[in-house]
Design goal:
The chain has eleven helices and eight strands. By secondary structure, it is α/β, with parallel strands linked by helices. The protein has a single domain, classed as TIM Barrel, CATH 3.20.20. Strand 7, helix 9 and strand 8 form a beta-alpha-beta unit. The protein is globular. The structure holds SN-glycerol-3-phosphate.
Length: 217
């Protein structure tokens, strides 16, 4: 499973990249607003830190506008994935951009029917929002399972990018289903490392090691 960081905070991205486990980054207009940074500048900086896909979202709602914005965004770096909303215009832009060799992340997916449309439009990534789906009383993970089954039935190459991840169990459940990618806020990625028994185990090993009076180097 690939791990993407869902943030536009460059310091957090650098810190995660040092683990060697970060495969990409996703941003959205809200995350850009939160960062307080210039959109094109921060996306360029992120794309220079992370070798994998960096999603940058268009804000136009019409096909021509999306294509004009995508033209600017894809020139920033070779690893930019253009993020488009799951609308007829977004999928039209998706088809044109992927046909041209540009990665496209189709975002704001809330149904298996929408995910099927995105695959037919040749999306590189489909982003079902599990947390927001759960928030309104639906089962976000069931949506991931349904999309996995549909994509496998037809051998669609579109990668399932689980988004709106709110806790480590979302990541584990998505991995059990076989989602290709998950994107999560850095805080949640760091939580994946944690287990109280790992911490207490280290403490007791170190205590016993000190009692041996030895040193490795
Ligand atoms: O980037 C899209 C998605 O991950 C948003 O998550 O927490 O705002 O629902 P959230």
């Amino acid at each position: 499973m690939k791990f993407f960081a869902d943030t536009a905070e460059i310091s957090e991205i650098r810190e995660l990249a040092e683990t060697g486990l970060l495969d990409g980054v996703t941003t959205n207009p809200s995350l850009i607003h939160k960062s307080g940074r210039d959109f094109l500048e921060v996306v360029g900086e992120i794309a220079s830190v992370v070798g994998g896909p960096v999603s940058a979202e268009v804000v136009a709602l019409d096909y021509e506008g999306m294509m004009r914005e995508a033209e600017v965004l894809r020139k920033i770096a070779g690893n930019i994935a253009i993020k488009v909303p799951l609308t007829p215009a977004g999928l039209h832009a998706c088809k044109s951009l992927t046909g041209d060799g540009t990665m496209v992340n189709v975002t704001l997916c809330f149904s298996a029917a929408q995910a099927l449309l995105a695959a037919k439009a040749g999306a590189t990534f489909i982003s079902p929002f599990v947390g927001r789906h759960d928030d309104v009383g639906f089962d976000g993970m069931q949506l991931i399972a349904d999309i996995r089954m549909i994509y496998d039935n037809y051998d669609y190459a579109t990668q399932i990018l689980v988004a709106s991840v709110r806790h480590p169990m979302h990541v584990v459940e998505a991995a059990k289903i076989g989602a290709d990618v998950m994107t999560a806020p850095p805080k949640i990625i760091w939580q994946l490392f944690k287990h109280p028994l790992t911490e207490s185990g280290i403490a007791s090993f170190l205590k016993d090691w000190e009692s041996t009076g030895q040193a490795i180097v």
